[in-house]
Amino acid sequence: MSYDNEMEMKFKSLPENEAFARTSVSLFITPLNPTLDELNDIKTAVSEAVTNAVIHGYEESFGEIFLKCGIKQNTVYIKIEDKGKGIENIEQAMSPLYTSKPNLGRSGLGFTVMESFMDEIKVSSSAGEGTIIEMTKKITGGNSAG
Amino acid sequence: MNILCESRGRTLIVKVNGEIDHYSSNELKNKTDREYKQAKSKNIVFDFSGVTFMDSSGIGVIMGRYKNVISNGGVIGAVSISKELRKIFDLSGLFKIIKCYENIESALKDFSVRGQ
Ligand SMILES: Nc1ncnc2c1ncn2[C@@H]1O[C@H](COP(=O)(O)OP(=O)(O)OP(=O)(O)O)[C@@H](O)[C@H]1O
Ligand SMILES: [Mg+2]
Prior knowledge:
A: alpha+beta; B: alpha/beta; 4 helices; binds adenosine-5'-triphosphate; binds magnesium ion
């Protein structure tokens, strides 16, 4: 797809980069004039996907996380990719409250948040190869009261 | 993130400032557990008035503290939940187990009415 504007970044799977990733996306989409709610939804979804790559994708090891963000008219396209261990059963992983790490105090709500805060989400993954999360959200913006 | 803990009777008040994500949630978890033990508290009130962002990592922290607190016979409350935070709270079902208050004083008052 050809976007009106796009950006790409690559960073190490360190927890401190979770804030860096969501803040970068939030600054990048500012020209669309999103409402605070829309901005918060997108920041939260990015945070969930990046956190999953850090915690589940790479676990105790470190690797690279790739983030792409495109804008076409009023829609934001986000792609977050890791080359980590992958997801064996995507349906199970996406079901609310499912977590493979209950002992780490995870709640199993990351995918539920991504699904309900964004318009669309697509998960592609294969065991041993990594995971790609693609999400879109239309910005209504212009709502200065927001 | 910056965390201020204060003990009032048997209730630990935890005031969080900043963003709660996976990176910062460890500190929140550790500090809350440490102070809860040290002050021999029973209940916890989280003051979210200074929280500007929270993802599911924050939900995990609250659920974990909830389990500790009820096994200790206590209750848990939350104060000043912004519109943005409310959305993730609603989604998680946390409101079913945690009562929300406008301010610390009304939380403490309700706890004492409930015999806590
Ligand atoms: N990038 C990834 N690589 C490998 N496994 C993943 C990845 N993302 C998610 N998973 C798997 O999907 C499960 C569900 O993810 P989800 O984000 O919904 O919950 P969680 O991360 O376990 O908990 P929470 O997000 O509430 O802290 C994870 O427990 C993990 O097993
Ligand atoms: Mg997650």
